[in-house]
Structure formats: C-alpha cells, structure tokens
Amino acid sequence: MKNVGIASFKAGLIGKGIQASLTPALHMAEGRAQGFEYFYDLFDLDGVVGSSEPLTNLLAEAEGRGLGGLNITHPFKQQVIEFLDTLSDEAVALGAVNTIVLRGGRRHGHNTDWWGFAESFRRGLPRADLTSVVQLGAGGAGAATAFAILRSGAAGLTIFDQDESRSLALVENMQRHFPNAFIKAGADLSGAMATASGLIHATPTGMAKYPGLPVPADLLRFSLWVAEVVYFPLSTELVIEAGRRGCRTLNGGGMAVFQAVKAFRLFTGVEPNAERMLKHFEEMTRTPGRSAVAPGDGR
C-alpha cells in the first residue's frame, strides 16, 4: 500500500434510484489501494417529490458530517447548481454538475462525465474519423458526450432526440462553445447515417429494462465507429450488432470508470491508478445479479 498522507476520506452520492451504482465501490477500493480509509455513503431520494428542500438539507448534512466530496446524479445535476459557490468552466458549459468538492466551507462544482467519455474514446477508438458524427440522445449523458466529442476535434455533429426541443437546445449550447464546428439537430436519421463517420449512442436503449437497437441494423456500415454509453450490460445489442458488421466499437464502461477517476482526483488530491480502477470495474460487471443503471444516471 502507498501512504499518501490521508488517514481517511468521506464522500457520497446524491440521486434517485442509486442503490445499484458502481461508483461507491470504485472509490472505496481505490482509497484502500492508496493506503487510506474511504467511506462512501448513498443519499437516495427515490420517491421524494416536490421542492428542492431535501437536496439543500442533504448538502448541509454532508458538510456537517465532514464529507469532502459529493457525486451528483439524476435528477439533480442541474438543480444543484444554484446551491454551489463556484463552477468549473466545463460545468458552466454543460449546465450540469456531477462532482462537488466540499472544502473550506465552500462548494465547488465540476463535471467529470464529459472527460470520462473523452478519455475512454481516446483510449478505445484511437485515430477515429471525426469528420461527421451522429449522436442519439440529448439528455444529461448526451450533453456530456457532445461536449467531449467536440472538444476532441469533431468537425461535424448531428444530434437526434425524441424530444426535438431538447436536441435544438443542446445544439444551440454546443454551438456557442464550439463556433467553428458544424452542429445541427437531425431530422433524417437514414440520411445522416449514410454520410457519418461515427455514431455515439447516449440513450437508455440497450439496458435490460429497455432492450433493443437504437437504430435499424442496416444503417450500421462497416466503416463506422460506434461508441456506447450504456455499460450494463457492457455488450449491448448495439455493440454486438455493430461489431458483427465490422464496425470499430467502444462500450460504455470506460466513461463510467474515468468519470470516477477524475472525481477521485478532485476529491482527494491523490492521483488514482486508472488501470486498477478499470480492472476493478471489469470484475464487478462480471458479477451476476448486478442491476442496470441508466447512462449518466446512478453512476
């Protein structure tokens, strides 16, 4: 074990329906490996509706109990912003926070979801053609992946969502931050896929509760790369079918791990071992009985 000069650290996760989250185990195992005790609590507000009072109470409770950091997931990533003292540039750009550092009586908001996807993409799909990317989904996970792929150098991005107003809003926001990229809301999926160099899937389709393919199989050309955000199961129907048709594929596990890697670093000031965290994640996702959680939700 490595002595990092920290005796113990306390963190937590606030969200709804988060009992199956893999994030606590990732953080605690890495803390032990680094040589300090790491306590990670779940604050599950499942079933709570109405005002923001429960959220404000939990933030105060976390500070009172000496927690040094909080992860935030669905549906509080936007709602929590008004209760924070500072925001990172990325959190401002995305309008969402999934990581809060509690230090010196102040609350510092960050977004590590986008970096989680970007780092996973960099490692898993090196030299991918970013000329024309199609993305399915404009929710919380979609905002993070859109920001990440544009930050990675995408020249063109077409975003599809069942809620057209949501895709239009995401396009408008991304265009402000990436004025040199060609970004648009999609209307013709077949046409967009015919000229796409890659596909990002950022909806819940493919999870155990939402089986199926998010696109018709015949739109998956062998020249496409395909990046998934669903990570339970790791081999979604999209990943399997795309691989069968010769596409380069990326499962959603890397995004889940690397968002935790950066959050761990922000929380503790200690450099985590990303390879070790990846290995631990792989071990957990091979364990029978794990429940599925939505992309970007309950991580």
UniProtKB/TrEMBL annotation:
<dbReference type="GO" id="GO:0005829">
    <property type="term" value="C:cytosol"/>
</dbReference>
<dbReference type="InterPro" id="IPR013708">
    <property type="entry name" value="Shikimate_DH-bd_N"/>
</dbReference>
<dbReference type="Pfam" id="PF08501">
    <property type="entry name" value="Shikimate_dh_N"/>
</dbReference>
<keyword id="KW-0057">Aromatic amino acid biosynthesis</keyword>
<dbReference type="InterPro" id="IPR022893">
    <property type="entry name" value="Shikimate_DH_fam"/>
</dbReference>
<dbReference type="InterPro" id="IPR046346">
    <property type="entry name" value="Aminoacid_DH-like_N_sf"/>
</dbReference>
<keyword id="KW-0028">Amino-acid biosynthesis</keyword>
<dbReference type="GO" id="GO:0019632">
    <property type="term" value="P:shikimate metabolic process"/>
</dbReference>
<protein>
    <submittedName>
        <fullName>Shikimate dehydrogenase</fullName>
        <ecNumber>1.1.1.25</ecNumber>
    </submittedName>
</protein>
<comment type="pathway">
    <text>Metabolic intermediate biosynthesis; chorismate biosynthesis; chorismate from D-erythrose 4-phosphate and phosphoenolpyruvate: step 4/7.</text>
</comment>
<feature type="domain" description="SDH C-terminal">
    <location>
        <begin position="254"/>
        <end position="279"/>
    </location>
</feature>
<dbReference type="Pfam" id="PF18317">
    <property type="entry name" value="SDH_C"/>
</dbReference>
<dbReference type="GO" id="GO:0009423">
    <property type="term" value="P:chorismate biosynthetic process"/>
</dbReference>
<dbReference type="GO" id="GO:0050661">
    <property type="term" value="F:NADP binding"/>
</dbReference>
<dbReference type="InterPro" id="IPR036291">
    <property type="entry name" value="NAD(P)-bd_dom_sf"/>
</dbReference>
<feature type="domain" description="Shikimate dehydrogenase substrate binding N-terminal">
    <location>
        <begin position="13"/>
        <end position="100"/>
    </location>
</feature>
<keyword id="KW-0560">Oxidoreductase</keyword>
<dbReference type="GO" id="GO:0004764">
    <property type="term" value="F:shikimate 3-dehydrogenase (NADP+) activity"/>
</dbReference>
<dbReference type="GO" id="GO:0009073">
    <property type="term" value="P:aromatic amino acid family biosynthetic process"/>
</dbReference>
<dbReference type="InterPro" id="IPR041121">
    <property type="entry name" value="SDH_C"/>
</dbReference>
